[in-house]
Amino acid sequence: MPRATDSVGEFTRELLGRGHTTLRAGFERSVRALRLHGVRHWFRRERDAFRQTLKTALACAVAWELAKYLIYHGDPQVHAVLAPVAVLITMQVTIYQTFRRGLQQVAAVVLGVIAALALGAYIELTWYTLSALVIIALIIGRTLRLGTQVNQVATTSLLVYSLGRGYGLERVWDTLLGAGVGIIANAAVAPPTYSSAAAKDLADLADDLAELCREVAKALGSTWDAADARRWLDRSRSLFGDSQDTEEVADQAEEAVRYHPRRSALEAEVNRVDQAAICLSHVAAQLNGLLRGLYDLANGNRGLPAATDVPEALGILLLDAGRALNRFGRLQIPDRDSRQVLEELKVIITAADDHQLSAIEDMLPIGAHAVERWSVHGALLDGVRRMLYELDPVAGPHTLAIPPIAPASVASSST
């Protein structure tokens, strides 16, 4: 029987591995974006993230200084860290959630102070009174539906219980000040729309899908086996999960404009991002189905002998899909090259129509299991055709996913 420490060690290694994988994936995405689109477009992708980071840092500094002089009267021995903490908790959300989370945080702290002062006058701090205090505080937080701030009630109660009434009052004032600064900064200074964050995620997802399409297309033109098909399918399933996460970010963008001062001007962009998220979700699902077909073919599923021969035109169409995805993702963050990028996307889709005709002519297997193989090849071809149809900026179902591009944006492409 394995020791508990072994299980803990494995769990720790798994967590560290996931963190390493996430960091590596983020770094690789940044490098790929730089390589594909250049420094200027990469900076445009990251511009809103830089702005929000700088705004949050400045708001924390303001909260620190205000707390130091208004609450602690400039005492150099006091470090007013709780006000900046309240800013951080409050600001990393939409305007609607900023108000909601700020109120929840203040309510949680006040309730925690009240609970600690009420019980602290009658009981002594021991392990069982501490447990009782935590239980009561958590019940209060959940009963009042304080969301992510439920644990703040218990945390504040324990700190006040152990550090005294004076700390409790200071914590309340710190939280009020920090939450107030966070709300004002988030609502008044470049309010976050999350449509830009969603557009960046969509651009990254499109590049990921394009890279997988290109990898599979190149392999189909040479040598591949069941192990390759398994790896492609696993990657595709992961990207489909990413597409669901991206749809959630698009939903957050819809919420972000609820109390935004420029709501009417931003709604069109939010709707566009939502359409783009749906488009890439469909493309990811279709690519996943196509790669499952290749996996079944390579492993001899569906009663067919294992084989890795597919129409050569299928690889060409996958290359078309990869190129179209690259342009579609680039368009999600408009810049001065967007007009040319859009024209390139139209040319790719038009050329793919001719490649589809070639693929249909190629799809005439002969010999044993010819009919069954024709059925599988037809499904593969139909999958990639559906992907291209989803990305079609003229006749596809998601034309609203393409941002409006002014004629003045015509310029030479950097890709």
From TrEMBL:
This is Integral membrane bound transporter domain-containing protein. It is found in: Membrane. The chain crosses the membrane at residues 78-96, 103-121. It is a multi-pass membrane protein. Keywords: Membrane, Transmembrane, Transmembrane helix. InterPro entries: Memb_transporter_dom. It comes from the Bacteria. Residues 75-184 form the Integral membrane bound transporter domain. It holds the Pfam family FUSC_2.
